[in-house]
Specification:
The structure is a homodimer of 332-residue chains.
Chain A: H1 6-17, H2 19-32, H3 39-50, H4 55-66, H5 73-96, E1 100-101, E2 104-105, H6 107-110, H7 113-132, H8 137-159, H9 168-192, H10 198-225, H11 228-231, H12 237-241, H13 246-254, H14 257-268, H15 274-287, H16 289-308, H17 315-329
Antiparallel strand pairs in A: 1-2
Chain lengths: 332, 332
């Protein structure tokens, strides 16, 4: 008997229910990266193969399938959402100067910053071309807005880099823009092409928004708590990048003057080292802010699940509720 | 009496004919760059104010006005085209590591690469939002395709950097993608929102394509021939960037073994200096390739003018024909 973890189980059902559509989406994505300019498919394939969990296209497919599938538009939108996400990953890796993503060298490390910027732009164009093929101005409206909001969130995060005194509310705003905006749009457009009514659209949007926020907060916690192997990226990445995330923001609230000074000074340094990380981790442990971050993630997760219960009881709806659990209990 | 140069005169008429729409477009562009994240409007304003000639939105407005204006969609599209162009400029300046644009410091020099990348993404999202507001799937199709083609051309140019043996036909392909694709789309979408028929659309597309190619070839010639002041950027930029343009490609054809070796070696160096440029310029002068480049630019320009004569004789049509002349005689 194969042992299956609770973590895997929570994704297992959803994956089984949308397997066919998921594979179609994957194929469509791979079709889009074709180009006579060899570097484009090569670099795109590299980042797409690293791939990750493909949560966003899974959301589009599932939200469409939970209602009434009419044609293949949900596949096109799922692929568009993933291409949009991939484009932002390419640009983020350049901005963050990340050497590794999921344990593999990043594209700009294997090629160069220039290629990553331009191939990102190419994928963005391709994402919009796919959206156009659905003939849905509504979906184009939602996803073009999301594209601008994501970039806005990234700039805000950049401006706030090293600022340990950032207010929690402003930090949540960053998360809502840079992560939750695409989750909510992915869900909403899935609903739209399946004829969701106004209140269903609103629910899908809010489900995605809360799930996305929970997902990002869990990521923030994992970065100080996960093991490097399972995370597939380096533990402490946010810290080394000078990104102030919730575990730090909450720790600052109850820190002693000495600890506050340490965090302020450390996040304002050009480079942070392993010893700095260990001291920061000790402060975080003392203030118990990993648990506080996870509790907040759970609150967002609970909201997402509550909203989803507004939909008729069916296997996909239930698998989407499980997906919220997966986002919260995952170790990578 | 104010003396007006032939160069200024050729743009003068068009500017006068579309002054109102041009100002509306400018206002709309400036509205789009608003954001609570201060760095976004600041950085955007910097690059937009450098502005340049705004030829692309002028094309959209003119092509729409030459036919039959129905609503304000041509203004939205003109602004979208300029925002798309601005986004590519921000990314290009990072890719080319340019310090100056039109005599002013580039955005990534004043802020940083990261901000330029992300604000470029923001402007791209805003461009698509404006297109969506026209409700025209056709226009969205054309411009999303153009966005991907531009990026494809930029990657091809990057791959071919330093390659003095690039074939003329491949170089023209780069130009058609990175420059002419937006010119042709700018013209076509202008026509579409004014109800252009199939053959008019084709003519507008081809007018833009030939004009864009002529425009870029003239740019290539100016970079080896223009004075630094008038050009607003450094003379020799392409050379220092290692970009092999037509004056070099044509010179390679008739160069002696010694000259070929020099050009090959020089373009393969990491950095090229002023002496290198002077020697390259001497080879170019000897082979008369500035004139050959300008002759080819003229051929594309003549094609553009010939196509435009297919439209009914009216002031805007004639001003668009003058615009071709402007593109060819300009000194900046």
């Amino acid at each position: 008997m194969v042992k299956i973890s609770k973590e895997d189980l929570s994704l297992h059902n959803l994956k089984k229910l949308i397997k066919k559509e998921f594979n179609e989406t994957d194929k469509l994505i791979k079709n889009q990266i074709n180009s006579d300019v060899n570097r484009i498919p090569k670099l795109s394939k590299h980042i797409i193969d690293l791939g990750g969990k493909r949560l966003r296209p899974m959301l589009t497919i599932s939200c469409a399938k939970m209602l009434k599938i009419r044609n293949k538009n949900h596949i096109k939108l799922a692929a568009a959402v993933e291409l949009l996400h991939t484009a932002t990953l390419l640009h983020d890796d350049v901005v963050d100067e990340s050497i590794y993503r999921r344990g593999e060298k990043t594209s700009h490390t294997l090629w160069d910053n220039k290629s990553s910027i331009l191939v990102g732009d190419f994928l963005l164009g391709k994402a919009f071309q796919l959206m156009v093929k659905t003939n849905s101005i509504e979906c184009l409206n939602i996803l073009s807005k999301a594209a601008a909001i994501i970039a806005e969130g990234e700039v805000l995060q950049l401006v706030e880099t090293n600022n340990v005194s950032i207010k929690e509310i402003n930090y949540i705003k960053i998360i809502e823009s840079k992560t939750a905006a695409l989750f909510s749009s992915a869900c909403e457009v899935g609903g739209i092409v399946s004829g969701a009514n106004k209140s269903q659209r609103k629910n899908l949007f809010n489900f995605g928004k809360n799930l996305g926020t929970a997902f990002q907060l869990k990521d923030d916690a994992l970065d100080y708590d996960g093991s490097s192997n399972k995370m597939g990226k380096n533990n402490g990445d946010d810290f080394y990048d000078g990104k102030v995330t919730l575990p730090i923001i909450l720790a600052m609230k109850n820190a002693s003057k000495k600890e506050k000074d340490f965090l302020k000074k450390t996040f304002n340094k050009k480079v942070r080292n392993k010893t700095d990380l260990e001291i920061a981790k000790k402060i975080i442990r003392d203030k118990d802010t990993i648990n506080q971050t996870l509790k907040l993630a759970n609150r967002y997760g609970e909201k997402a699940k509550y909203i989803m219960r507004d939909f008729e009881n069916n296997p996909i709806r239930n698998a989407l509720i499980d997906l919220v659990d997966f986002s919260l209990i995952r170790n990578h």
